[in-house]
Amino acid sequence: MLLMRLSIPNLLLVTLLLLPITCHAQGGANGTTSTAADNQFSNVRRDNLLNGLQIVSLPTKGEATVRCTIVIRAGSMFDSVGKTGLVALTQRTLLAVNPQLREELESLQTKIEWGVDADKTWFQLDSTPANFEAALEILSRLLVVENIRTDAFKRAQSDQLALIKQGGSLSQRADESFLQALYGDYPYGRNVLGSELTVSNLRQGDIYDIFQRFYLANNASVILSGNVAPERTLRAFKYLFGGWSKGAPVPATFRQPVQIATPRTIKQSDPQSNDVEIRGGVAGVKYGTPEFLSVQLLAEVLKNRWARRSGNGSPQSNFIVQPRILPGPFYFSTRVSPALADETSQRLTETFNSLVNTAISAEELTEARNQFWKDQNARSTEDWLLDIETFSLPRNYPLTIKQRIDATNPTDLQALARKLLESNALTLVVVGRVDGTVK
């Protein structure tokens, strides 16, 4: 029988001892005092419990719901070699303790979603203000108290194996194959769900270990938005999460991925597919570094060059920069018919490489900036707060972007492109109905 970290009755005692440290960030994402008209972050409020749990609130009058997202900085990057799928199975095991979770929350007019990616584990509640505390209590029982039961572990393991056996869509398999080819044994090359072999070999003690090392109050943040009454919700978190253990968060420090010295093409044939998925690119930079914004501009330059080169009749392609804690991928993605796979893969490769061999003009940079701002303006304040907490960005990060973007020039952009493409040669992955003609 595994020991309990804290039982629910003890939470009341702990709550009386854990008064919050409150930081009212009203007046700027950097926590300085200013008027409510300054920016979209002016009404953000930050409260810290003494156990390290950050509660970030964005009250919005007139909303009918409260959205609560709990982010734990525990992604699949922390799966050990030979134990891929462990972080995902940990979340699944905790949720399996309450098989009626969705039904209970629905009775409270609350929806729940959850997930794991390479960088984080997250839980999200959408509730009415009247039922929010009751819904939060149900979720807290799964996170604050160690309750990893054997029956829940076995049920979660069976469910995860079933998902793995089903296999993903053609697009998902192409993404997985590309990341595996690009990163190899590096954390971002691992499948979030794991494989049949690795998940079958996981044990209940492995789940307990992840829970003890990562499910810590000071390794988590709460983002609240909507019809939030800050003082009322803070009391609820003090009572329900005041007893969450704190510890030493595991840092995301890993050796560098293996350098890819020469261009390569990897093909995976699927005769049952009617289409072909193409991915190609290199490892980029970490989110939050000064270069990250420049790589985003490079993606916009590529998007515009592809549109001009391809014309209206060519396949639509995306040029993607993934925000990651570690250096994430910078790549292109498209889906085409088998007849167009060879031509499209060659043209996309040439377009990607044009960042090095074709000068970026001032007009191209202006065009890229305009598209960049269009995309950024579509983001909500909640999206930014989630990024700030997940990736440990400076709290004023969104407010510094304009200055950085305006300071970018074509020469620096091209120098960065050259650095990225010289550090690693392009990896091309083609999945679907392919034959020997795809190069």
Can you describe this structure in just a few lines?
By secondary structure, this protein is an alpha+beta fold. About 45% of the residues lie in helices and about 15% in strands.
Task: Explain what you see.
It is built from 15 helices and twelve strands. The protein is α+β, with helices and mostly antiparallel strands and 439 residues long. It folds into two domains: 8-172 and 181-241, Cytochrome Bc1 Complex, Chain A, domain 1 (2-Layer Sandwich); 264-432, 2-Layer Sandwich (Cytochrome Bc1 Complex, Chain A, domain 1), CATH 3.30.830. Helix 10 (290-310) crosses helix 11 (338-357). The longest helix has 21 residues, at 290-310. The protein is globular, with a radius of gyration of 23 Å. The chain starts with 7 loop residues before the first helix and ends in a 7-residue tail after the last strand.
What value does the Rg take, in angstroms?
23 Å
Spans of at least 5 consecutive residues with low confidence: 1-37
Average pLDDT, to the nearest integer? 89
What is the succession of H and E elements? HEEEEHHEEHHHHHEHEEHEEHHHHHE
**Morphology:** globular
Q: What percent strand?
A: 15-25%
Q: How are the strands of the largest sheet arranged?
A: 1-2-3-7-4-6-5
CATH architecture of the largest domain: 2-Layer Sandwich
